[in-house]
Amino acid sequence: MKACKRTIKALICKELKDYDKNPIIIIALFLPFLTSVFYGSIFKEVLFKIDLCINSGITFLGIILMPYLIIEEKEKHTLDVLILYSVNSFEFLMGKVLPFIFFALFANILSVLNIFKLNFIAFIEIILIIFISLLSVTLIGALIGFVCRNQSEAMFVSIIIMLLIYIFTLGGSLNSVLSRISSLCGISAMNLLLGNIIEGKGVFSSPQSLIIMIIWIILPIILFRVIYKRKKFE
């Protein structure tokens, strides 16, 4: 356990140093807040604010930025070193994802404060839902980065997945088939819960949506562990 904590701490320190060397990453992590500054006061529709200022930020950060960071490890050959050093999948994910989640969640907290007027309970509930969704999408992004061989391949896969997310979430109200698929999407579940919380219904207004969001955390972790172990034995 102590060795695991030391390894995670060392990986987090390494990640923060990488952020310091490349400040563009920090700027990208705060894009959700910058978006809310520009558009939060222009549009009055709550669901539109959620989609423009929160959804887009979460999907961009998790699906586009996280694969870039994983591919960067491959290009620097530090990923091979970490695997040879017997860093397991849990340690790698914790070291890579925790700093990313910290900055991204902080940016989203600023966004929520900027675009919504909420009581304390509703604010905490919304941040909890955003954290769950951000973690889920970030894990999917890490999986994309680990599977893809280079930046161009990762970008292509990321764009396809982002398009599918938007097709299912935006098209859910237009088509019954898309609506059924959309109901199983973690982002759609987040949208529903955020809308319910803002309307005063609370975080447990849709237990099914919470379960779907949690499933979308568990599945990428399982897949990542399987692929990581396979890579380790190659």
Mean pLDDT over the full residue set: 83
| Secondary structure: helix percent | over 70%
What count of domains describes the coordinates? 1
* Approximate strand percentage: under 5%
Instruction: Write down the Rg.
Output: 18 Å
Low-confidence stretches: none
What is the overall shape?
A: globular
Number of helices: 11
How far apart, in Å, are the first and last alpha carbons?
27 Å
SSE topology string: HHHHHHHHHHH
Query: Could you give a short account of the major beta sheet?
Result: none
Write a concise keyword list for the protein shown above.
globular, single chain, 234 residues, mainly alpha
Task: Report on the architecture of this protein.
This protein has 234 residues and is mainly α. It has one domain (2-233). 83% of the residues lie in helices and 0% in strands. It is built from eleven helices and no strands. It has helices spanning 2-21, 24-29, 31-39, 46-75, 78-84, 89-115, 120-147, 151-171, 176-182, 186-198, 207-233. Helix 4 runs parallel beside helix 7 (120-147) and helix 8 crosses helix 9 (176-182). 35% of the residues are buried.
